[in-house]
Amino acid sequence: MKTVNEIGMAEIKEFLAAQHKNGANFGDAEIHAWATEAEFQTGEGNPPSIEVLSWDAVDGRTIEYTISEGGIDETND
Which residues face 20 on adjacent strands? Predict the structure, then answer.
């Protein structure tokens, strides 16, 4: 099982602050929710990524972010 670690949480927070209309206002609970989405993606065989849809994006375009390898821990669960 792959989980988002503290580095990954910081990456998500930085990405959302720059790309999501309300991202600068997101607290730990919102960041954790986005991390859960990235973890779900890995369970589906995809990279650990999140997506800001066009209506929530600063520039009006859907944008995807993939968390770095350093931002992901792998466990044997």
Answer: 57
Cβ(74)–Cβ(2) under 8 Å?
yes
HSE, side-chain direction, 13 A CA sphere, residue 49: 11
Helix axes 6-19, 28-43, angle to 10 degrees: 110
How much is the pTM?
0.94
* pLDDT digit string (tens) for the chain, length 77 residues: 899 999 999 999 999 999 999 999 999 999 999 999 999 999 999 999 999 999 999 999 999 999 999 999 998 86
Helices (H), the chain: 6-19, 28-43
